Amino acid sequence: MFSFPRRVVLVPRIPALADAYHELLAASHERLAGWEPWADAPPMPSETRAFIEPSARNWLAGTELPVVIAVPEDGQWQLAGSVSLRIDSYTRSGEIG
Asked: Does the reported pTM lie above 0.70?
């Protein structure tokens, strides 16, 4: 877990977070639909898990750093967003999305 001022943390996006991540996506799908073609309808839990699992494998392979952004709320961590760094070792570059 990485932490920043104001108690914001980055947590690796792993399958253990699939339920909480799914709730975040479902609650945000209308806003995301303006930016993401896959968000035209609320996601199904199986789709969320199918998205998370390869990202976790890519993290272990060193080709992606998938994280969720969490903030404290009522004494617990609440997911507020996500970001990924995709790493291309051939070109020695990365892409944030």
From this structure: yes
